[in-house]
Amino acid sequence: MSVATQQSQQFDEEDLLAFAGPMLEAGITPQDCKKLADAGLNTVESVAFTPKKVLAGIKGISDQKADKIIAEAQKIVPMGFKSASVIHAMRSELVHITTGSNQLDTLLGGGIETGSITELFGEFRTGKSQICHTLAVTCQLPTSMGGGEGKCLYIDTEGTFRP
Fold first, then answer.
1. 146: DSSP letter
2. Cβ-based neighbours of 154, under 8 Å, separated by 6 or more
3. What's the whole-model pTM score?
4. Which of 9, 32, 145, 163 is the most buried (most CB within 10 A)?
5. Angle at 133 between CA 127 and CA 136, to 5 degrees
6. Cα 121 from chain centroid?
7. What is the DSSP string of 54-66?
């Protein structure tokens, strides 16, 4: 066997162990872990969220075994529903960062919401970068001034930022 083949097998075994470790501790056999990995289910999360019908469709995994695998994966991965009061409490802790424009903040329901992704798009020279530069500063301001008392990492993917 060539060195490259041995390294490839060793890498595959290491990846399998990283995925299978928690599953093995939960009582799932190494052979079943290998079958799951071969089917593209490389994380415990992917197994926990996979429908039973898909798991049962993997050669060598019966309906009963699929039930057991899903049950064990769901014990490892925190799943389930949260009550509306829990979600409300989480949302009440979110901060809105000012854009520097009262009118735009009003349109956005108080500014840019933290804990979420906001996409800006539009024509060339319409102010998208200017808003991002402003947010990079205001996110560091105290909450009393409309900021988030946080830090900023600005990634310029086009290389157009000139300080």
1. T
2. 132, 133, 136, 161
3. 0.52
4. 32
5. 140
6. 23
7. HHHTSTT--HHHH
Cβ 96 vs Cβ 114: under 8 Å: yes
Q: Is 30 within 8 Å of 24 (Cβ atoms)?
A: yes
Provide the pLDDT for residue 13.
Answer: 60
Residues composing the chain: 163
- Please give the pLDDT value at position 6: 42
Interstrand relation of 112-113 and 96-97 (parallel, antiparallel or unpaired): antiparallel
Q: In the chain, which residues have pLDDT < 70?
A: 1-19
* pLDDT value at residue 29: 85
Write down the pLDDT at residue 156: 83
CA atoms within 13 A on the CB side of 36: 32
Q: What is the pLDDT of residue 81?
A: 78
| Residue-by-residue DSSP string for the chain | --HHHHHHHHHHHHHHHHHHHHHHHTT--HHHHHHHHHTT--SHHHHHTS-HHHHHTSTT--HHHHHHHHHHHHHHS--S---HHHHHHHHHT--EE--S-HHHHHHTTSSEETTS------STTSSHHHHHHHHHHHTTS-GGGT--S-------SSS----
Encoded tokens for 149: 């008392």
Identify the bridge partners of residue 97 per DSSP, sorted by sequence position.
112
